[in-house]
């Protein structure tokens, strides 16, 4: 079992959402996030530890901080709507949610 599949709990929807997220990060304008995502997708580094390294920790922390600031201000209905987009194939729906683009650190 791969590290990614293990983290996704072998749930096919979670696995797809996680891989899709990594593919989006692989296209990030931030070189650290691009390198991180490519390394995880190629199996060169485990996802569980990749964000903890000094090389990638800052970029991951900054992206998460930006997302958390946004997510924390949502009401329960807005959170539920955003979470529903995580399993969908419609990236436009995620874009319409107003969530920050963590690929660019916004």
Architecture blueprint of SSEs:
Blueprint (H helix, E strand, L loop, with lengths): L2 H5 L4 H14 L5 H12 L4 H4 L6 H16 L3 H10 L5 H6 L10
Helix pairs in contact: 2-3
Would you identify the regions where 5 or more consecutive residues have pLDDT less than 50? 89-97
The helix/strand series, from N terminus to C terminus, equals HHHHHHH
Average pLDDT, to the nearest integer? 81
Q: What helical percentage do the residues reach?
A: 55-70%
Percentage of β-strand residues = under 5%
What is the first-to-last residue Cα distance? 34 Å
Quick one: how many beta strands? 0
Number of domains: 1
CA gyration radius, whole angstroms: 14 Å
Q: Indicate the structural class.
A: mainly alpha
Overall body shape: globular
Sheet with most strands: none
Q: Number of helical segments?
A: 7
Q: Quick gist of this model?
A:
The protein has 7 helices and no strands.
Describe, in plain words, how this protein is organized in 3D.
By secondary structure, the chain is an all-alpha fold. The protein has one domain (3-96). Helix content is 63%, strand content 0%. The chain has seven helices and no strands. It has helices at residues 3-7, 12-25, 31-42, 47-50, 57-72, 76-85, 91-96. α2 crosses α3. The longest helix has 16 residues, at 57-72. The termini are far apart. Residues 89-97 have low confidence and may be disordered.
What key phrases describe this protein's structure?
106 residues, mainly alpha
